[in-house]
Design brief:
Blueprint: E1 14-21, H1 23-28, H2 32-46, E2 51-58, E3 63-71, H3 76-85, E4 91-94, E5 103-108
Parallel strand pairs: 1-5
Antiparallel strand pairs: 1-3, 2-3, 4-5
């Protein structure tokens, strides 16, 4: 499944960020895939410099991944906290930073 919300009209510098949903979280709460897609679409209306380039399923892991252009001046943690308010309890972790790879944030089941 692929979707795109269109390019940014601004010339502000941006970075690629991946927002991922773990397989076990999406199996436990199947509606959150549509919920996150809707949230990110609405966020684009609020912040036109932010947009989703692509949404796809990673076959090897079963994760849903949204690849986003995020303005460098924007606090992605703030977006993730707002998103978590609309989701069942979850934990967000940041993936390892590899050269030339987007920063990846994984939404998963909370640690007990």
């Amino acid at each position: 499944m692929t979707s795109s919300l269109g390019p940014s009209s601004s010339h502000e510098e941006s970075s690629l960020v991946e927002i991922c949903l773990s397989y076990r979280y999406s199996q436990e709460h199947p509606w959150v895939v549509q919920g996150i897609t809707g949230f990110l679409s609405a966020y684009y209306m609020e912040q036109p410099d932010f947009h989703v380039r692509r949404h796809y399923d990673e076959l090897e892991t079963g994760r849903h991944i949204w690849v986003c252009d995020v303005p460098d001046a924007m606090n992605i943690r703030h977006l993730l906290k707002r998103l978590q308010c609309d989701l069942p309890p979850s934990a967000v972790s940041q993936g390892t930073l590899l050269a030339k790879q987007p920063i990846r944030y994984l939404i998963d089941m909370p640690e007990d």
